[in-house]
Amino acid sequence: MELFRKIKAKSILLHFLFWIAVWFFFFYFFSYNSDDTAYVTWFSSFLLPLTMVVTYFVVYYLIPKYLLTKKYLLFALYGFYTIVFTSYFIVLIIYGCLIFLLGFNIAIMPPMSKNFYFILILVYLVTGIVSFVSLLNHSFKTVSRNKELQNKILAAQLQFKEQELHYLKRQIHPHFLFNTLNTIYGFALKQSKQTPEIILKLSNLLDYILYQVNKPQVNISEEVSHIQEYIELEKIRFKDSLKAELTLNIDNEDIQIAPMLLIPLVENAFKHGTMEKGFLRIDIRISVLESRLDFYIENTFKNHADNHPEGGIGLENVRKRLDLNYKNNYLLTNKIKDNRYAAKLTIFNLNNWKNE
Length: 356
Hints:
With 356 residues, this protein is α+β, with helices and mostly antiparallel strands. The protein folds into two domains: 13-152, no CATH class; 193-347, Histidine kinase-like ATPase, C-terminal domain (Heat Shock Protein 90). It contains eight helices and seven strands, in the order αααααβαββαββαββ. It has helices spanning 2-30, 37-67, 72-102, 116-189, 195-212, 220-238, 263-272, 312-326; strands spanning 218-219, 242-250, 256-257, 280-289, 292-300, 330-336, 340-347. The strands form two sheets. Strands 2-4-5-7-6 form a five-stranded mixed β-sheet, covered by helices on one side. The chain has a two-stranded antiparallel sheet with strand order 1-3. A hairpin with a 2-residue loop joins strand 4 and strand 5. The longest helix is centred in the middle third of the chain and has 74 residues, at 116-189. The chain is rod-shaped.
């Protein structure tokens, strides 16, 4: 409230100083070729309130109500009425000062004060200047508001993006944990000696999920290590019925990638893959050369009604995360051919990533 009062007081002071300056402006012009300072003083003083009324009417009524709302015809009409009103009062001021101050002696009247058109132009010059400044100020405020609104929209979009990314990551975790815990449960029932080893591998994977997945980027070596841990767990679960091969060709293990981006594709291969001649065959190839990632995965697959060739929720999550992190910078395809399901992901420039 105190700040508002200070701003209001400052505004009133500026208006006051401006109109004093306008009075001196009038006094200067009407004093031209005249020594009658008393008459010029009174004439300028009478003309100033008319100029103030016209200016405030144009700036605070005509411009906001008609010009800024694009009602140009009404603006022109009421503008014409305003000029007629101004002209009428200018004539009254001229004749009033002539009669009451000079006794109708037009010969001694200062030459500039009896020129009707000059006075009208002078009044509307002041009105025009103030209107121009007002329009500039309005334009500046509009641009500022639009920029502020744009910034708020961008901030909201960024927040939405972050929430969507975290949601997609949370969807991955339960799926992964469900599969792994089922494996541990099966081995625990059999009292297998491999149970501690499985728990240790799960612990490593959980460490990756809990502490690394919240990072915007991780080294490709960490993501690959995660995939290797996952495959080792599945090999324990499938025993001799799994034939999985992982081929790596990485020229820079420190290159960055969004965490847990590839594991859903690996999970899909194990979840939707089917046995062929007693084996589940999975072939994974990861290549990173000059910041380009090529990921290829293929598994045996028979397209039954209960299978999902498109990869279900996992692949859909991958697409969404790719759109959020590498929009227009990746290619993800999948196909089924000769009882094989294959998915291929290419990220063309891993250096061109967006922070989550």
